[in-house]
Amino acid sequence: MAGRIRDADVALVRERSPIADVVSEYVQLRAAGRNELAGLCPFHEEKSPSFYVNVATGLFHCFGCQQGGDVYSFVREIDGLSFREAAERLARRAGVTLTYEGGGVTDRTVSSQRQRLLEAHRVAAEFYAEQLGAHPAARAGQEFLTARGFDAQAAHRFGVGYAPTGWDTLTRHLLARRFTSEDLVLGGLSKPGSRGGLIDRFHHRLMWPIRDLAGDVVGFGGRLLEGGNTSHAATPKQGSANAGPKYLNTPETPLFRKGSLLYGAEMARRDIARHYQVVVVEGYTDVMACHMAGVTTAVATCGTAFGAEHVGVVRRLLMDSDERRGEVVFTFDGDAAGQKAAMRAFEHEERFATQTFVAVEPSGLDPCELWVRGGDAAVRELVARRVPLVEFALRGVIGRYDLDTTEGRLAALDAAAPLVGRIKDTGLRHRYAVNLDRWLGFLDERFVASRVAEHRGRATATDRAGAGANGAGGARAGAMAGGARGEIAAGASGGARGGPGGSAAVASTVGPRRAGTVDSADPAAVVEREALKLAIQYPGFAAAMFDPLPPEMFTVPAHRAVRELIARLGGVYGGLARTGGVGAWVAELSAVATEEELRRVVTALAVERLLWDRDVDDRYVDEQMSRVQELHVTRRIADLKSRVQRLNAATDTDAFNRAYGELIALEQHKRQLRERGVGAA
């Protein structure tokens, strides 16, 4: 077993793995400042972006769910990896060979389970692609592609391959390359045979490699072909009805989770970001046809219906938010199955901030068939003819009723009204109620609107009743939340003037509360936070003016804890001199912050935007540090005034005079600090 990875290699991989590039493989990022990028958080569902990446410090932080850290932390969290697995993945991406230390012995052959599975899938994809052009039985696959308009170049572009007819052709190929039986079974490439040993999972199928957003092959989709050499088939008779399902995907594995994968997403992601559009089709050949036709934002689910996890992937690719609207276009057949699929999609419509549409070909052709018959223009026209998903769903519902009778129209209204009632936007709900009245022919908008409101009220009451079933638990949760809020308030007020400002103070202040937020009504908190952001993000400018500030000048316990952490590292100047750069300085701060809550605060400070939208210079830094001192002096003046008022000038003359003289000196010092701040501005 290999030992730990050398620190020098860890640092080299971090240096060659820009965090913005790595995060962009999973999240669509937009510029949000000089060094900041923003996007929808991949770790929780949100409507507006609260996930930020700072390219200068090399850190990310979500101000919603508080996830944050460096590039290693991101890869570990997003893919559920250990540090070693994340390091190996990033090293492979950056072209760095890792060295493992184990009793002085360097071992470069041992890799993590995930890396072995990814490598096995890469080799399998190459093997299948080679077989499509070399295996005699692959002619059926070539003919299948040709009949749908795809030549060898198109097959190569999409990595299409062929799974041979033999029992264990791929299995033997992979075992010969030193992959283990456990790797092949765990990855879903092979399975135990009825007579012992391993056999291939896929036989005599056209194969599509399915990739994650980073471009790694994580599974396959296979389409059963006609004919084939049955003497070595894994099933009784290849090409017959009992030869297995027509379509077969990789089973759920550590790499392959079909509920969160979209075929073609790694190819489409850049054009999705450019055009603010995702086209969701039903099959792998549909994706191919759309891309060949110029609709390069097309993706497809992998053997499952479009679900909640797919919504999250699409929203992150679109950076779907209330501030930035794109469009999601579903393509469905015009038959009953297409109507059913549309209703399933409608179940998730409200999860999108963007608009959702449906594109249906009246002839019932799927995008691939349409491309074969009508060419590129026909596919592009299909997408251009899209209609809102809500309208499509409503028309599908009312189309099942006889609208020539009053009873039929009323039944259609009662069937469609709950769908309209689910629309959250009040204005949009009203307009669809008006449209529903017109489509049904009542010519009584008020009646239809009241019927919609009635159904909406019933649904709301049902939801409340369901929530009430958990009343006891909800009450306990509410009490706990209320108690936590009380503790936060007490900690913030009680710790403002004293206390150690250590990990306990940080936990009480930051715990349930967002580590990346401050009370905007408290000028001291805002100024302290800006000073700390400068010290962490711009240490070269801040060192000389920040280091003289003692921890007691920071009133917020979390801020004081960070100031003490910096002091323990020898100040900003000492830390920068030792580490040699901003990224290494921030990494050292995070590493030394052993308490989780303190580390979150450091990460948030390293990512959060400054309040200054111009280039940072000595004048701005001087202004902020002067303001920290000014507020500290203001607090001392208030304390001293209180003491002077308690003294009797006649009986406590010496003490009164000393206090009064100190007060005058502090007032003068405050004026100087204020002038410095104004002058710097």
Strand-helix topology:
Blueprint: E1 4-5, H1 7-15, H2 19-23, E2 30-31, E3 36-39, E4 51-54, E5 59-62, E6 68-69, H3 71-79, H4 83-94, E7 100-102, E8 105-106, H5 113-134, H6 139-147, H7 152-158, E9 161-163, H8 169-175, H9 181-186, E10 190-192, E11 198-200, E12 205-211, E13 217-224, E14 247-249, E15 262-263, H10 265-275, E16 277-281, H11 284-292, E17 298-301, H12 308-318, E18 327-332, H13 336-346, E19 355-360, H14 367-384, E20 387-388, H15 389-398, H16 406-421, H17 426-440, H18 445-468, H19 471-494, H20 503-510, H21 523-537, H22 539-546, H23 557-568, H24 571-579, H25 582-592, H26 596-607, H27 618-646, H28 653-680
Parallel strand pairs: 16-17, 16-18, 18-19
Antiparallel strand pairs: 1-7, 2-3, 3-4, 4-5, 5-6, 7-8, 9-12, 10-11, 12-13, 13-14, 15-17, 19-20
Helix pairs in contact: 3-4, 11-14, 13-15, 15-16, 15-17, 16-17, 16-18, 17-18, 19-20, 20-23, 21-22, 21-26, 21-27, 22-24, 22-27, 24-25, 25-26, 27-28
Search tags:
6-stranded mixed β-sheet; 54% helix; 5-stranded antiparallel β-sheet; alpha+beta; 28 helices
General description of the model:
With 681 residues, this protein is of the alpha+beta class. The strands form five sheets. A six-stranded mixed β-sheet has the order 15-17-16-18-19-20, with helices on both faces. Strands 2-3-4-5-6 form a five-stranded antiparallel β-sheet. α15 (389-398) packs parallel to α17 (426-440), α16 packs antiparallel against α17 (426-440) and α27 (618-646) packs antiparallel against α28. The longest helix is centred in the last third of the chain and has 29 residues, at 618-646. It is flat and about 110 Å long.
